[in-house]
Every structure is written in C-alpha cells, then in structure tokens.
Design goal:
Number of strands: 12
Shape: globular
Structural class: mainly beta
Strand content: over 45%
Number of domains: 2
Helix content: under 10%
Number of helices: 2
Radius of gyration: 18 Å
CATH architecture of the largest domain: Beta Barrel
Length: 205
C-alpha cells in the first residue's frame, strides 16, 4: 500500500442514518454523502458524514437502518463563503460493504501527521486535562488533510510540550460533538467532528 495511504486509516462499522445526497463529480465519477452512526461503549452515538463513490454502492437505494463496514480515510477541505472559511471533515470510503449479523459497532482511526498549530492545553471545570492539536496528514499529489484532535490526561500534558512540525502518530476514534453558535440574532445548533486520541507517540523525539 502507498505510504501516504497508510498514514490515515479509518474503520467505521455502524448504522446508516440517512439517504444518499449528491456531493460532486470528478472525471465522470459521482460522489455522495450519507450519515453513519457508531455507538460508543457508553451507548452514546457518534453520527459521522461518509462520502462514497457511486461505483462502490447503489446510491439510488435507501439503506437507512442497515449496518455497513466502511474502510477509508478521515479527510478535510476548506469551504469558502463571502466572509469565512470553514473546515469540512468527512470519512472518505475506499471500501464499503454490508455488515454481517452480529457485527459490533466499531470506530477506529490511525493518523500519522505533523502538528501545524501550537497545542492548546487546558483543564475542564472538573479538573480533567485536555489538549487540542491540529494534525496535517499528507495525501498523494501534495495534498494534506487537516484533522483536529483532542488528547486527555497524561497524553494532553505530553502533547502540550510538543512543537509545530513534530511528527505525531496517534490512534483514537472519530467523534461528533454538538455545540451552539450565535449568528447575528439567531442561535444555531452545529456539529463539530474531531479525533479523540487514546494513544499517541511523538516520532520526532
């Protein structure tokens, strides 16, 4: 496998929560998005956007409620409007198949990338340590995906001492998190996506 494909490996096994929605077309190949939910051990669900080619699955069908296995990458692109730039994150499916009965929900990702902003370390109101990092993960043809990640406890302390440019290897899960944002006079409910790391290593050290 190409080294630049090995550095971003996402495995998502969960339930389809929506119909396919057309995204874009490249060289005659059409891509669609759908929502897939994966349960955590706490029974909380992460509902994640998945992008899939029409060549991998029949996008004319409604598979809502079916369980699928998705193998691919967690990718990003910048969406620009008149005033702002927004980082859009999604799971890009390289393989997809329907799961056999009895298959457990799975949400796992391996990233090998470079810190591209200074880590932000803080403590939650109940004293839990947390650090935010932004990883640049390289793709072929000079493209990079920018993936927000959060680390906890001693990993948060460790990553807070790392620097921009350090090569970080981490494992975790992709999570969805709802938040509210005030836009002019309206309060909008939005969803953020990030990787919650449960293991990491600084390959630069």
């Amino acid at each position: 496998m190409n080294k630049l494909l090995e550095n971003n490996q996402a495995t998502l096994i969960g339930t389809i929560e929506s119909k396919f929605e057309f995204s874009h077309e490249i060289y005659g190949e059409k891509f669609y998005t759908m929502q897939v939910s994966a349960k955590r051990l706490s029974d909380t669900k992460d509902i994640l956007p998945v992008m899939v080619s029409e060549r991998l699955i029949d996008v004319t069908q409604d598979y809502t409620g079916e369980m699928v296995e998705v193998y691919g990458q967690f990718r990003s692109y910048n969406k620009h409007d008149d005033k702002h730039s927004k980082l859009i994150l999604f799971v890009f499916a390289r393989e997809i198949k329907f799961a056999e009965e009895g298959t457990y929900h799975t949400n796992n990702i391996l990233l090998d990338g470079f810190i591209c902003k200074p880590p932000v370390y803080r403590k939650t109101p109940n004293g839990r340590e947390i650090a935010d990092i932004l990883l640049a993960v390289n793709r072929p043809h000079g493209i990079s995906d920018y993936i927000p990640c959060i680390c906890w406890g001693r990993d948060a302390r460790y990553i807070s001492g790392c620097e921009v440019g350090d090569n970080i290897l981490l494992q975790g899960r992709i999570q969805s998190r709802e938040y509210t944002k005030k836009v002019e006079t309206e309060v909008e409910k939005r969803t953020a996506y990030e990787v919650s790391a449960y293991w990491l290593e600084d390959k630069t050290a």
